[in-house]
Amino acid sequence: MAQKYKVFAYGSLMHQGSLGRTVPEAYNIFPARVQGLQRVFNLASHYRFDRQQNRPVCVLNVENAPATLTMNGICFDMDEQSIQALLHREQGYDFCPITAEHFDQQQVFSAYYFQAKQFTPYRYLPQSKDQQHYLTLCLEGCAAFGENFLADFKRSTHFWDIPDQQQSRIWRGEY
User: Fold this and answer.
1) How do 37-50 and 70-79 pair as beta strands?
2) Would you tell me how many other CB atoms lie within 10 Å of the CB of residue 7?
3) Structural domain range at position 67
4) Structural domain count, the chain
5) Which position among 35, 69, 81, 83 has the lowest Cβ density within 10 Å, counted as fewest Cβ atoms?
6) CA torsion 165→167→173→175, rounded to 10°?
7) Cα-Cα end-to-end distance for the chain
8) Would the pLDDT of 175 be above 90?
9) pLDDT digit string, tens, across residues 36-70
10) 88 burial via Cβ count (<10 Å: 0-12, 13-18, 19+)
11) Is the pTM of this model over 0.90?
12) Coil, strand or helix: which one is 145?
């Protein structure tokens, strides 16, 4: 019997198109949350680039946080055969176990998530169309799960080395 994996995704994999291109075999997709982690834009992508600046786009990562903090994402199931494509896409990350819960129900379960391996923090690229495209993928993915889920994504997402006032401008699409 093939092993099954439950994966907690918190970035562009929340977008059904992005998930479907990488893991078309994903099933049982639902909104979830975890405690003790925070989502942050602080990682240079190894395959997403800003074509005009010829620099990597900044992508999402997670950092350890106080247990009182929560962060949302989605969970999905996949089998052992299809996990290889996902591990290849997320090669800059470690595949780590975590306890998660359903976003709308009090159902707790074990899952895996991706956390960046050793890396140098990298800054979000303001005024980059390619950077904005990545953020839009994440926002559209969240919107598919409802307004509360989208609001929770914005609440629990941070931008490394960008002041709060500028972060507000990013959310409004002004920066």
Assistant:
1) unpaired
2) 24
3) 4-171
4) 1
5) 81
6) 70
7) 50
8) no
9) 999 999 999 988 999 999 999 999 999 999 999 99
10) exposed
11) yes
12) coil
Distance in angstroms (rounded) separating the CA atoms of residues 62 and 71: 9
Cα 38 from Cα 22, distance rounded (Å): 24
Angle between helices 129-143 and 147-155 in degrees, nearest 10: 130
Decide: 5 and 78 in contact? Cβ < 8 Å: yes
The contacts of residue 104 (CB under 8 Å, 6+ apart) are: 31
Calculate what percentage of the chain has a pLDDT beyond 90: 81
Number of Cβ atoms within 10 Å of the Cβ of 170 = 20
Is the Cβ–Cβ distance between 133 and 98 less than 8 Å?
Answer: no
Q: Are 38 and 63 in contact (CB under 8 A)?
A: yes
3-class SS of residue 90: coil
